[in-house]
């Protein structure tokens, strides 16, 4: 008999709190081993995504994202209670293409509160895979604590053959609850691998092996019986960035470069009052001469201009085919355009806008 406890929701406007507590089944008891040690406490913050989706009859592969709650997801994972005492809260229920500053700020605030109040030893966030890298990178840069926060999703919705959500969720809880994870801060767990948000990106539209870290490789491996980190805990600093009180990050646009490119997209971003522009440049972050001239005009106006690349792997280095020093640009190094955008937003929000200072922040290993 399952003992599913329902508790009052205190912290979030859109949430219900449940606890997967001691089940009569020994496998899911509240104690971790024969020494009767207390299990770690994990809070699952559910935001939606395919992992919360259910198959839809409209086509063989159709489904609706964000239909099931975090509490329902936990019920689908036999044995998950052996890793932790788990509480689920519903933060949102959206496909991650609809992820926004409001949900980000809500997540950051709630996670800081959970750790400040000692409510849990780790947090798991269920999330769509499309923009998971951006949410993970945002949280890595703003959370106060370096306690484990594990984002997890799935490529296949619940109820279909080979659904990957239940195993991914099991492994996410396992990682968040592990003493090995303390001090590692924000991580992503998908398909038996553990990733650092700095390196992680979505690389395939449909495969379960989609979230990879092409420049660095995973930080670890997980299966239902073991966790193996292959990188040390390197950084225990607190985030240097604070969130703007206004509840919204400044506007930073991404402009995608292509052959036969003119200046119009960059000029539009300037006219639309973007405070920063990230170029998803060709190759090593390059653009046409016309676009380059528009970027220089923008930089002269005090807009932060970052050169990233539309190529999925590698680094964008300074002063290769473009004279960044002279033009006042920033090179994104390893950060892809979507993560370069997040960092640029946080920097502008924290008053860091000069090219040298912005470049310094991009170069930091944090
Ligand atoms: N668009 C959905 C999302 O990001 C589907 C992708 C997924 O969750 O895997 O939420």
UniProtKB/TrEMBL annotation:
Any one Gene Ontology BP term: asparagine metabolic process
Sequence similarity: Belongs to the asparaginase 1 family.
UniProt domain L-asparaginase N-terminal: residue ranges: 41-230
Assigned keywords, A-Z: Hydrolase, Signal
Signal peptide range: 1-21
Keyword hit for Mitochondrion: no
All copies of domain Asparaginase/glutaminase C-terminal, residue ranges: 251-362
PANTHER family in the record: 60 KDA LYSOPHOSPHOLIPASE, L-ASPARAGINASE
Transmembrane portions of the chain: none
One term of GO molecular function: asparaginase activity
Protein name in the entry: L-asparaginase
PROSITE patterns: ASN_GLN_ASE_1, ASN_GLN_ASE_2, ASN_GLN_ASE_3
Pfam families per the UniProt record, alphabetical: Asparaginase, Asparaginase_C
Active-site residues (renumbered): 50, 50 (o-isoaspartyl threonine intermediate), 129
Residues engaged in binding substrate: 96, 129-130
């Amino acid at each position: 008999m399952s003992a599913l406890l329902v508790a009052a929701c205190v912290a979030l406007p859109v949430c219900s709190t449940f606890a997967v507590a001691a089940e009569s089944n020994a496998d899911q008891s509240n104690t971790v081993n024969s020494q009767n040690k207390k299990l770690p406490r994990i809070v699952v913050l559910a935001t939606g995504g395919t992992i919360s989706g259910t198959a839809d009859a409209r086509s063989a592969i159709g489904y609706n994202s964000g239909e099931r709650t975090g509490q329902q997801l936990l019920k689908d994972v036999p044995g998950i209670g052996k890793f932790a005492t788990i509480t689920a809260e519903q933060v949102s229920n959206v496909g991650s293409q609809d992820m926004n500053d409001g949900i980000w700020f809500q997540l950051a605030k709630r996670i800081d509160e959970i750790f400040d109040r000692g409510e849990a030893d780790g947090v798991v966030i269920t999330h769509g895979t499309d923009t998971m890298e951006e949410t993970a990178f945002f949280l890595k840069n703003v959370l106060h604590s370096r306690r484990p926060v594990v984002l997890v999703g799935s490529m296949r919705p619940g109820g279909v053959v080979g659904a990957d959500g239940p195993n991914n969720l099991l492994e996410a809880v396992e990682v968040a609850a592990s003493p090995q994870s303390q001090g590692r801060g924000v991580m992503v767990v998908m398909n038996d691998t553990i990733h650092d948000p700095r390196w992680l990106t979505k690389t395939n539209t449909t495969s379960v092996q989609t979230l990879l870290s092409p420049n660095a490789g995973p930080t670890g491996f997980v299966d239902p019986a073991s966790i193996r980190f292959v990188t040390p805990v390197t950084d225990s600093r607190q985030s240097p960035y604070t969130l703007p009180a206004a509840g919204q990050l400044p506007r930073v646009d991404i402009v995608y470069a292509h052959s036969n490119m003119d200046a119009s997209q960059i000029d539009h971003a300037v006219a639309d009052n973007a405070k920063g522009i990230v170029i998803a440049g060709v190759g090593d972050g390059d653009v046409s001469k016309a676009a380059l001239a528009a970027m220089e005009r923008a930089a002269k106006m005090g807009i932060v201009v970052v050169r990233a690349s539309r190529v999925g792997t590698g680094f964008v280095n300074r002063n290769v085919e473009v004279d960044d020093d002279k033009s006042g640009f920033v090179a994104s190094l390893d950060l892809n355009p979507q993560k370069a955008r997040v960092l640029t937003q946080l920097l502008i929000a924290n008053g860091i806008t000069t090219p040298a200072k912005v470049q310094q922040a991009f170069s930091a290993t944090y």
